[in-house]
Design a protein that fits this description.
The complex is a heterodimer of chains A (194) and B (283). With 194 residues, chain A is α/β, with parallel strands linked by helices. Chain A has helices spanning 13-17, 36-47, 90-95, 109-118, 130-134, 174-180, and strands spanning 6-8, 24-33, 60-62, 100-103, 121-124, 137-144, 153-167. Helices cover 23% and strands 24% of the residues of chain A. Chain A has a five-stranded mixed β-barrel. In chain A, helix 4 links the parallel strand 4 (100-103) and strand 5 (121-124). The relative contact order of chain B is 0.20. The chains are: A alpha/beta (194), B alpha/beta (283).
């Protein structure tokens, strides 16, 4: 397999514009975690005209909540949660400056439309390999909503975090490409022990 | 009548604790075998890379005593109690809940249980969902299944009409997997519960997920045929590992069945992710 290019944060517009759905990259730099409860609270803060805990124009949001950090470690196991649950809030966040998201699973038409309009990108991180992904995390600290337990927002320093571009900013969609190519797959014949 | 065998609740608490910690950290041998088999069948470059990451992850998790997945689940317990066992030393259900509490605290597992309306976290991952059966004998079999939310969310319970038949069941299962797409962390284990009542079909589907991988149903040939056919159709969808496209979308399909009302055909499709955690112990 060819070597994955490494992207460094903060991602400039030119870094994002060149990406295509299906590209495999490594990300190094600063990202922040936010999932259901953090999205609900940020959305409410925007509606009420209050300040957000992060600068959306620079933030890379990772839909994730790690396991508790054992003694002597930087972080517990960590991986993406299903992004679709954040879809209700995402167009507003994109409108307010968010350009880069990391998660897993399909986004809504409204999110994809907002991404096209504003030039945003959505990366997939591999699900269910959270001990592996934890190795890419060099530091972690809670920056907001500590009372939300595992759903608190954390700032993470990552090195060579393995990502795949799911939705690029021109309407490219890896999951749709996969489904439209399905005719090409013959079902695997599976020898079984019975 | 034989004297009842006595079992102290502290023993039950200890076993439940150990089962949940082990299930969260160690990929089952049956699941690892199915992933290896998927690797031998897979051709898509991205899917092969994804399957290799799964094997690398299980090695790291085991060596470093880390959870395989950050979603360490809602704790589901299946308990079979022999009718000749006498539980002493405390309240049986509380002993199970205490085992869950200890596992999630001492094993550094994520607490993922909350009030459904206020969404306030219960902070110790209880209450577990507990299913108890009374069976012959003097043993207690405990199966721990930490169940993740991503795959549970894409699961479906449906009351089909009897005329829908086998074809209707197959279409519902395949359609459920198609709609889940990448969301439930494929390659999946698919549990299918057929018959009973609404809630019993769901219980059958959940129990089907606890069955070891690698064998089709060995009690009913019709179910074994159904599992074979469904596995082929699901893998024809092309979703692949992580939804990045590939030949292996499901590692296994497990179907269980019970008689139902003459008016009904309840079917539940319960999806499980590729970590497919389940671990049992017999006391």
């Amino acid at each position: 397999m060819k070597k994955r290019p490494v992207l460094h944060t903060p991602l400039e517009e030119r870094n994002i514009l060149g990406l295509e759905a299906g590209d495999q990259v490594l990300l190094s730099g600063t990202i922040v975690t936010a999932r259901d409860e953090a999205h609900r609270r940020m959305s409410r803060a925007i509606e009420e005209g209050k300040e957000l805990p992060i600068d959306l124009t620079e933030a890379i949001i990772f839909y994730a909540a790690p396991t508790p950090t054992p003694p002597g470690r930087v972080i517990g196991s960590i991986g993406p949660t299903t992004s679709g649950r954040m879809d209700l809030y995402t167009p507003l966040l994109i409108e307010k400056g968010l350009r880069v998201m990391i998660g897993k699973g399909v986004r809504s038409p409204a999110v994809k439309e907002a991404m096209r309009r504003h030039g945003a990108v959505y990366f997939g991180a591999p699900g269910g390999v959270a001990a592996l992904l934890a190795r890419s995390i060099r530091s972690a600290r809670v920056i907001a909503f500590e009372d939300a337990g595992p759903e608190a927002m954390m700032e993470l320093e990552v090195v060579d975090f393995p990502l795949v571009v799911i939705n690029d900013n021109r309407g490219g969609d890896l999951y749709e490409m996969v489904l439209s190519a399905t005719q090409g797959f013959s079902p695997a014949s599976r020898p079984r022990s019975d | 009548m034989p004297p009842a065998r006595e079992l102290d609740v502290s023993e039950i608490t200890r076993v439940v604790r150990d089962l949940f910690i082990a299930a969260s950290r160690e990929l089952g041998g049956d699941v690892a075998g199915a992933i290896e088999e998927a690797l031998s069948l897979e051709e898509s470059e991205r899917a092969v890379a994804a399957l290799r990451e799964i094997m690398e992850n299980q090695r790291i998790a085991r060596e470093e005593s880390m959870p395989l997945c950050q979603d360490t689940g809602l704790a589901v317990l299946f308990v079979e109690i022999g009718q000749d066992v006498r539980i002493r030393g405390g309240v049986f259900h509380e002993a199970l809940q205490e085992g869950v509490r200890l596992a999630y605290r001492e094993g550094y597992l994520r607490k993922s249980v909350c009030d459904p309306l206020s969404r306030v976290n219960t902070a110790d991952n209880t209450p577990a969902v507990i299913h108890v059966d009374i069976v012959p004998g003097d043993r207690v079999r405990i199966t721990a299944m930490p169940k993740g939310g991503g795959s549970e969310n894409m699961s479906v319970a449906r009351m089909l009409v009897p005329s829908a038949g086998l074809e209707g069941i197959e279409d519902l299962v395949v359609d459920t997997v198609r709609k889940a797409g990448p969301n439930s962390c494929p390659p999946l284990v698919v549990g299918v519960g057929i018959g009973g009542t609404l809630e019993y079909s769901a219980l059958l589907a959940k129990k089907a997920l606890a069955r070891p991988l690698g064998r089709f149903n060995d009690r009913d040939d019709r179910l074994a045929d159904l599992e074979r056919k469904l596995l082929e159709r699901i893998n024809g969808l092309g979703i692949g590992a992580q939804g990045y496209g590939g030949r292996v979308t499901a590692l296994a399909v497990h179907a269980e069945m019970a008689p139902c009302h003459i008016a009904s055909l309840p079917v539940t499709v319960n999806l499980n992710c590729h970590v497919a955690r389940h671990r049992e112990c017999i006391l």
